[in-house]
Amino acid sequence: MSIELSAVLVALVGGVAIALQSLFSGVIGAKLGVAESTFIVHLGGFLVAGVLILVLRGGSIGQWRTVPWYAFTAGFLGVVIVGAVSCSVPRLGLASTLTLAVVAQLLLGAVLDHHGWLGASVRPLDLARIIGLVALGAGTWLVVR
After folding, report:
1. When you count CB atoms within 10 A of the terminal residue's CB, does the N or C end of the chain come out lower?
2. What single-letter DSSP state applies at residue 125?
3. Model-level pTM?
4. 129: region left, alpha or beta (phi > 0 left; psi from -120 to 50 alpha)
5. Which domain holds residue 63?
6. Average pLDDT value for the chain
7. Does residue 71 share a domain with residue 8?
């Protein structure tokens, strides 16, 4: 399997952004409240995305009808994510919150991959992946305890 270096770097930058956004959302959530934090974070995202769409002169936004209906729940899920992080970071700490969030992502990702649901590539659970998930569970316990 070949890994494209630019995709790895983008994923790492995304991981740094997730950690920082989680921390900052937690700060806002602790000071103002979860709903307020969620609103502020999404308002900022709306403004940045709006400017990008304007700069790109609409990009391919006109093709929105080709997107599967369930993909439009991403905005709602973004509110759930920011709300959960805003609530959890002040109570559990950043490392525990991110660890639990990543574990949830990986477990769901393994199930979606195994079945090929919601457009995921089919990648069956084999013994190596199951051992990896068990090790992930042990590591999570060590971080969160």
Report:
1. N
2. -
3. 0.82
4. alpha
5. 1-92
6. 94
7. yes
